[in-house]
Amino acid sequence: MRNDINQYFNKTIKVIIKKYRINSILIAISGGQDSICLLNLIEHLEKENIFIKKIAYIYVDHQWKIDSEKQIEHIINYLKYKKKKIYIYQIKEAALSENISRIHRYHIIIHHAIQYKFKAIITAHTKTDKIETFLQNLIRRTSIEGATGLNLHRRLCKNINIFRPLISISRIEINFFCRQYYLPVWSDITNYNYHIQRNRIRNELIPYLKKYINQKAEHNITHFLKTCYYDHEYIKQKVIKLYINNKDKNCIALNYQLIKQKHISIQTRIIQLFIYHNFYLLINHNSLIKIINKMNQKDKNMQSIVRWKHITIYIKKNVDIYKIKKLIK
């Protein structure tokens, strides 16, 4: 198993480096088994003389734990022993929400990558993380896009990509790998805090599903997510093509008469893309449905107006387009 993980990882990283022309990598770590495994795999990769101009590590301390300082000391000592460079950020005000903390962490990592001109960010997310994230998002209410958000590659901006080379490897396999190499894994006490929803999913829900519902629950969820990912990619390509063909060249507008002929699933995605492309905003579900309903009304001579945040949406049925303009305050 150890050799299999090494071979899979090396093959994946080589493809990534060649395809995206990566010469600098920022690796986000936590000190847990997934991160230590990733660090070890990167070290093995460097021995193969693969040209990577710059490799550095980054750790974001949320200061949730009593032993935060000791964990940082452990990470520093280990990377110092490995002669690796690490950047450490500490968040002064601890956020109680797991989601808010995740957003803060990503903002710090992305900003650091931009500031120091890293071409790629690598995280240690695993197949198990993907399943947990799916279940968590499903409970919170999500879409097919939200369900398939954790993948091997995601483009953050023009010059920066995020990669998750361990996304096809389970936590059990990584645990075995760490034991085989006698790696110094830090046991995170927050993983046993059941006030954190993800921990209940990891330690209670998934074991329950495997024991009482289906022993292959994790495998089946992974297969489902893979199918959803391919479906979503196909739909996304169709939506982008339709959006480009139907947007007005001279103003912020769409030919809604052509769009309304499509399935409501396509309609909603085009409106979402339209809003995001022009205003960098994610429209909420209720406002989105309100726009769709107004757009599909049968009265051709009626003009509808929908207001959302600082945006006014005009649906002019007599001119076959609807325009979106910023309100001038």
From TrEMBL:
Residues 25-204 form the tRNA(Ile)-lysidine/2-thiocytidine synthase N-terminal domain. Belongs to the tRNA(Ile)-lysidine synthase family. HAMAP family: tRNA_Ile_lys_synt. This is tRNA(Ile)-lysidine synthase. One of its GO terms (biological process) is tRNA modification. The keyword NAD does not apply. It catalyses: cytidine(34) in tRNA(Ile2) + L-lysine + ATP = lysidine(34) in tRNA(Ile2) + AMP + diphosphate + H(+). Ligates lysine onto the cytidine present at position 34 of the AUA codon-specific tRNA(Ile) that contains the anticodon CAU, in an ATP-dependent manner. Cytidine is converted to lysidine, thus changing the amino acid specificity of the tRNA from methionine to isoleucine.
